[in-house]
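cron nightly-structures :: item 1 of 1
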Amino acid sequence: AAAVRELLQRGEETLNNTLVESAASVLDRYSAQIGDTQALQARMDQLRTQCAGNKARVTLGEGQRKAGALTLRVGTRQARPSEGAAPPA
């Protein structure tokens, strides 16, 4: 229980979602040995809602490219008017 409390405390201080999720994993794995987990679970749920607003949400399945794919640009580069490039002679 001490490890879960420590992870939750650090997660609360920094709003680091990874620490809160680590606490959830420890609590889930060792809930039988920890015993009364309701208070810790309630605190964890509260922190999850606080941390959820701070993280960038990844939308799965809505990307324009496949996992590991690269966007290759082909063709010649057009000179922008602001660059002042003279046309080739």
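cron nightly-structures :: done
The chain has four helices and no strands.
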